[in-house]
């Protein structure tokens, strides 16, 4: 069977393999609950609809970084092959970075869906991480990076071009605070993060850089985690207005609103199924469907609708569901690591 991803996506192939939600947890009890919640939702949806990222940067107590890293290793080792679990390590200039790589990547790197590196400023920072991983024989772990300063955002296109970078996230609160009070506090939360020009510009730069290089733009946290309506509206705007295909969660209550906001509508899915099925029957040659011309450019769009539907747990008709049971061969950009 010729897979649509092999025919249609090209440089954009990386975006199809990542769940739309990346859930962060830094305290052991919450980490365990998050991993169990992921397993429960896999049973509910029949797919892994969100990643769990175990946090060493903000989760580790000062002076207890090595013990925290060892605890993270024990949790990763308990996960199943179906789970998607990642780790956020300390920044490359933090004293604990080397220990994080040695303890975590050195022992369970082959089981990680990716490694999140905060406070990346330059391509040289990415190269430093690549070298550290190679030193512990984990040179294939995909890298997600967090841009948190004006200088980092300025270099977003160069960082997105790095072959080991799979996704870029935006660090909202550090970005705002790095402006020395020039951006008011409301730029860190609520509607402010979607209206202040400097914040919106930074988000758009990251999204554009990722799409230019076939990487995944991941939207920042929403701190109002008890306000479901605010969470859903923020996720909707990130997806529909700013071009983000993934978003952070910091509380379990945020996961379902993110899935719902990033999911295509039922009518969009139904239309995409019909067009992709018709395109496959024509061996992806141009067709007339409902009085409208479709070729590989539009097939690409409608295939991505189906990928978002799959990644958000939406049911798919049998004629296209088979594509998700028989994925294409992975490439370095979209590699799914072994979990032996």
What would you say about this model in short?
The chain is 45% helix and 13% strand. The chain has 340 residues and is an alpha/beta fold.
List the helices and strands and how they pair.
Blueprint: H1 4-8, E1 21-25, H2 28-45, E2 50-55, H3 65-77, E3 85-88, H4 97-108, E4 115-117, H5 123-135, E5 143-147, H6 150-154, H7 156-160, E6 165-170, H8 172-177, H9 197-212, E7 216-219, H10 228-240, E8 246-249, H11 255-262, H12 266-281, E9 287-289, E10 292-294, H13 296-311, H14 318-325
Parallel strand pairs: 1-2, 1-8, 2-3, 3-4, 4-5, 5-6, 6-7, 7-8
Antiparallel strand pairs: 9-10
Helix pairs in contact: 3-4, 10-11, 12-13
Q: What are its keywords?
A:
2 domains; two-stranded antiparallel sheet; TIM Barrel; 13% strand; alpha/beta; eight-stranded parallel beta barrel; 340 residues; 45% helix; globular
